Amino acid sequence: MNASAESETLFCIELGSNIDPALNLPRAAKALSRHFPLLAISSAWETPPVGTHHGGNYLNAAALIACALPTEQLKAILREIETRLGRVRTADKFAPRTIDLDILVVGEKVVEADIWRYAYLAVPVSEILPQLTCPHSGEHLHQIAQRLKATSEIRLRPQVDLQPFKSAKAPSRD
Asked: What is the pLDDT of residues 2-29, one digit of tens each?
């Protein structure tokens, strides 16, 4: 990117897969890191699918990137990455997928309200943005994630290592 760091916005991206997820989650992290500085990345977490019972369990993670592009242009790049990794969009929004890349947080603003409801979003994001505050309850995301972990079918998958794709220099988070 040619823009200066001052004009970059931090975006938190959700990575999810339930078709060869142990292969596709690292592939997605690598693809993201080729386009943007990957400032932080969570562990991989396994969960059952939400909204459907067909398809296998998902692996989910969250990545923090710095980007000077407008949100719509970033979404277009994320869709290109999904397509290159074999994502096929169908009318069934719950269909199994090789990869799903969604913007959850822009700057300090949560743009995906389900982050407060579902462990597959809250737990990975809480690893990299624990102090996000729920506008309804005032709780920090790390508190909500702990509660969701205790009441959801979610488990850490440490054998899926996404850390090698993290950029060498992370931003200061004062």
From this structure: 444 558 999 999 999 999 999 999 999 9
Query: Catalytic site residue 79?
Result: no
Taking the C-alpha atoms of residue 115 and residue 86, their distance in angstroms, rounded to an integer, is 26
107 in any annotated domain: yes
Could you identify the residue written with the tokens 């994630």?
145
Q: Among residues 100, 114, 117, 161, which one is catalytic? A: 100
**In a domain? residue 132:** no
Determine the straight-line distance between the first and last CA of the chain, rounded to whole angstroms.
24
Whether 140 maps to a domain, the answer reads no
Which residue of the set 20, 34, 87, 155 is catalytic? 87
How many domains is the chain built from? 1
92 tagged catalytic: no
Amino acid at site 143? Q
- Is 114 an active-site residue? no
Q: For this structure, is 20 an active site residue?
A: no
At 48-91, the pLDDT tens digits run: 987 766 678 999 999 999 999 999 999 999 999 999 998 877 77
